[in-house]
Design brief:
Largest sheet: 9 strands, mixed
Distance between the termini: 56 Å
Shape: globular
Helix content: 55-70%
Mean pLDDT: 80
Oligomer: single chain
Structural class: alpha/beta
Radius of gyration: 25 Å
Number of strands: 9
Order of helices and strands: HEHHEEHHHEHEEHEHEHHEHHHHHH
Amino acid sequence: MLSKKTANYLKQDSNFEVAFVGTVKAGKSTLINAMLKHEYASSSVTPETSVLTKFKYGEVNSLKITFYSKDEWDELWQSANKNKQKSGAFLNEFAELGAESQISKYVGKEPIIEDLLKENLKKYTGSTDAVHYFVKEAEVSFSGFPFKNLVFVDTPGLDDAVDFRSNVTREYISRANVVLMCIKVDPIHNSELTTIYQAFDNTGGRPEKVFLIGTQLDIRNQPLKAWEELKNDWKKNIVSKEEVDTTKFTRKQGETNIIGVAAYVSLLCDMKKRGEELSKEQNKVLQKTCLELFDDANAVDENFDELYKFANVDGVYKSIEKFTATARQEIITDAKLKFQGLFTEVKKYFQDSNQDAKDTYQKGQGSVDEIISKIKKEEKALGELEQTRQELKAKIDEFQGQVNNAVKEINDAIDGVINSIKE
């Protein structure tokens, strides 16, 4: 009756979710690294395959692996076989790894918690091990994550070979507080426009929560000039002519919600700032960027602050900071809307049950035992509904009580990160 929707609702918490979305090789992981100011996402915590991955704070470093239920796996498998032309590579690799023999071992299995080690993550999300096909979600918790009530969600691509996995991303776009759409700094192709429009379509009529992040700005010649031209080109394709538009950016949003970054440069600057020794290749990246910006490849130290400013990861932080100002009300409003939706179903259930009872009475064809049995079932259902009502009410109260502290901690943490960037 209400079991699935109610369960999903009761799983919600007051965390502020930032969804990282993009096509393959769009720079999502590099941006996550840069925003966390460490190379977490490539060295130990980014999956190699299309597995939804959450990054969050935890006192103990751990990796939680959640597997598909049988129904979810059946739906994924049907999705893969529905369009074999699109999912051919997925199906071929599945067969080559002998994954079919592993289905009963993992599908429907309870979540497991492992030590946060590279080999563990590789086992469950790496493309060389059959088990990765059955992993629904990887949750990475570590004490170095700078935001206690904020969650980064690295999503499967909207262009995934299996539509079921793309739908997971669409679901997260609709529920995320902020969506960072990562696009390589090049002229936008039709496939990327499709991805952007899909993101808009799944915002519930709120395009302002989407930010288009032009990634890898440092690989362009004359990057500042190139970005200025590209941003204008992007705006032509995605900005509405109307000031109010629920499907695309308004002109104002086109100015504020399109941000160019050089995430890898930002990360290298953080590493250098901490006194870490950079490799020869990493130093070359900074030198090349300095050559393009300042006509001097050897002027990294002299132009360090300007180099950091160019990388512009703090611009992404500031965008999130602005959005958290309304996070409290948004979280509560979203929770109440879903709460009301559930009660609409409860009301419908009562109406249907009442009509069913009337029909049974009017027909008078059932025996006394049947009628008594019917009454007992209705009493049980009413008891379950009352319990559900109490749980839902408690959840609303929990949102109301937690969210103030949650938003304050987010804002304080972001302020701290921005201040550290400025130092």
